[in-house]
Amino acid sequence: MVLTVDGATLATTEQGFLVNLADWNESVALALAEANGICLSEAHWELIWFMRHYYQQYKHLPNARVFAKAIAKTLGEDKGNSRYLSKLFPDGPLKYTCKLAGLPKPPTCL
């Protein structure tokens, strides 16, 4: 599959994750969000930037439980709970945060 952003054609996996992490920028995130029917708010961006920093620091993706705990530790308990995260990304907070952040599909996601 491919995604076209600002005239550039970017390779994606069958599930819409970027193949090349270096292709990511905010315009790509917006295009991925639109393709997935998500209107990005400030709260979404906060999670996207959090996940990019987490991946850069630890060089791996967390499972859903570790993801929520890391958010709670960094951004506060009110944001590190499944109710809040599912409100932002009803079809899978970890999966869609990673997808929109230009990261690989988490190994624990279907």
Keywords:
110 residues; single chain; 5 helices; Arc Repressor Mutant, subunit A; mainly alpha
Helical coverage, percent range: 40-55%
In CATH's first tier, which class applies?
A: Mainly Alpha
Distance N to C terminus = 18 Å
- Class inferred from helices and paired strands: mainly alpha
Percent of residues in beta strands: 5-15%
Secondary structure tally: strands: 2
Average pLDDT rating: 93
Number of domain modules: 1
What does the overall shape look like?
globular
CATH-defined topology: Arc Repressor Mutant, subunit A
Stretches with pLDDT under 50, minimum 5 residues: none
For CATH, the homologous superfamily is named as DsrC protein, C-terminal domain
Radius of gyration: 13 Å
Number of helices: 5
Blueprint (SSEs and pairs):
Layout: E1 2-5, E2 8-11, H1 26-35, H2 42-58, H3 64-75, H4 82-88, H5 93-100
Antiparallel strand pairs: 1-2
Task: Explain how this protein is built.
The relative contact order is 0.17. The protein has a two-stranded antiparallel sheet. It is built from 5 helices and 2 strands. It has 110 residues and is mostly helical. 49% of the residues lie in helices and 7% in strands. It has one domain: Orthogonal Bundle (Arc Repressor Mutant, subunit A), CATH 1.10.10.370. The mean pLDDT is 93. The protein has helices at residues 26-35, 42-58, 64-75, 82-88, 93-100; strands spanning 2-5, 8-11.
